[in-house]
Amino acid sequence: MNTEDFKDPDNIDEIVNEIKEMKELKDVYNLCWKTYPKWIHSILEGYSEDYPHFTENWKIISKNIKNKNEVKMQRLIIVNYLPLSGVIGYKLISIFCEIFVSSGFMVRDINQIFPCSVCNKGLPTEHVYKLMKDEGMSDIIPENWSNQCMKYSNV
Ligand SMILES: [Zn+2]
Q: Which of 16, 32, 111, 147 has its CA 20 to 30 A from that of 128?
């Protein structure tokens, strides 16, 4: 994945102004697609039930969105690139993220969360799974990493 594809365009000010004028989320979404056609990898219904703490964290975020009453949880947007906070040159991508998150969506990097091969819900990559194990989360995550939910693993 070439991260250059996701850098701020020269006309960023123009685009930011365009966003400010928009009243409908779908218009922002369409503009996002137009500006970064390679950015969104997939849109999932939510996280796998195997990792309930992911959904819990999302719920907490949705409850704490500034200037809004509790926002309804929407969908899980998987993107091909998420800039780390503080990285310069990816302001517009960050603005799109903020808008989606403040509307109840969750935005995750494909290198962290990917779709289950059976039901298409979000599962952690093996790398993220290992980090969670190292952090002492063994009690709340499945015993082994898999590319599909536990309920489908023994079929
Ligand atoms: Zn699944």
A: 32
